[in-house]
């Protein structure tokens, strides 16, 4: 089977494959758990906000620099500070993040399925993403599953700019035809990423680990109603994403992408 005929599944890295919960634990050694949790939330907020603001200003800096600046913003807003040495240690923690429990069986399923090409697809720089994948205690064992690590460094623009998703398609050997785009999937736990992927014309599986997978999915982002629709499918984890994507592709073979106005399918066990 040629690459052109395969299903492409591109996994967002931070917050989808790798859990950033340990970052709050590292912060807690300095400030206590309650304040650390608040700082970690602010850190993530500004990490994303900075990328969107830079897109709007047509500016680019490596994700590692944005991440460091966002941390300093979160610390200042919380009226606390850390030494440069401790900030460097927190940044280094990104190289040793662990995976969510559902990641390993999902990647193992891909490793034994020749119909899928898997990619890591991240806002991170090449060095940052490579270090995170290859040094993670739990993800590094599955690094060979990924055909490539696709980052935004080459194009110098961040998600959810459509250029980023088209860059993924190009790297995966897919054209921008409806048929090709229907076989390119993003798996992400970030709603903004999902809406961006759908607006760019590719399929998207939203990983909803927060709602306990109640059946309603927990999708609340309303931008899709204005832009592109929400996720193609809603899943509870990476393992379910893989089975759900294969099921969707089997049921929609030959379609033009499923249509952006359709309600997302909430996948279940089996």
UniProtKB/TrEMBL annotation:
Keywords: Hydrolase
Residue ranges the record marks as coiled coil: none
SUPFAM superfamilies with a match to the protein in the record: HAD-like
Signal peptide: none
Pfam families for this protein: Hydrolase
Region (Disordered): 250-270
Any one GO MF annotation of this record: hydrolase activity, acting on acid halide bonds, in C-halide compounds
Family: Belongs to the HAD-like hydrolase superfamily. S-2-haloalkanoic acid dehalogenase family.
Protein's UniProt name: Haloacid dehalogenase
Originating organism: Hyaloscypha bicolor E
């Amino acid at each position: 089977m040629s690459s052109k005929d395969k299903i492409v599944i591109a996994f967002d890295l931070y917050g989808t494959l790798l859990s950033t919960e340990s970052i709050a634990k590292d912060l807690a050694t300095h400030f206590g758990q309650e304040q650390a949790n608040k700082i970690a939330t602010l850190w993530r907020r500004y990490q994303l906000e900075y990328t969107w603001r830079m897109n709007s200003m047509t500016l680019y800096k490596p994700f590692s620099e944005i991440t460091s600046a966002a941390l300093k913003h979160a610390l200042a807003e919380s009226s606390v500070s850390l030494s440069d040495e401790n900030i460097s240690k927190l940044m280094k923690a990104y190289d040793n993040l662990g995976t969510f429990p559902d990641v390993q069986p999902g990647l193992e399923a891909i490793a034994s399925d020749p119909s899928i090409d898997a990619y890591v697809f991240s806002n991170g720089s090449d060095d940052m993403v490579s270090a995170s994948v290859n040094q993670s205690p739990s993800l590094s064992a599955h690094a060979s599953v990924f055909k490539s690590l696709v980052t935004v460094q080459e194009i110098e623009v961040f998600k959810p700019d459509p250029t980023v998703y088209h860059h993924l398609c190009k790297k995966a050997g897919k054209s921008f035809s409806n048929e090709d785009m229907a076989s390119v999937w993003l798996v992400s736990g970030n709603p903004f990423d999902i809406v961006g992927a759908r607006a760019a014309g590719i399929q998207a599986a939203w990983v909803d680990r927060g709602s306990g997978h109640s059946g309603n999915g927990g999708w609340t982002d309303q931008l899709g109603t204005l832009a592109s629709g929400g996720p193609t499918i809603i899943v509870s984890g990476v393992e379910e994403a893989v089975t759900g994507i294969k099921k969707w592709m089997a049921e929609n073979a030959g379609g033009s992408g499923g249509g952006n106005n359709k309600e997302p399918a909430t996948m279940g066990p089996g």
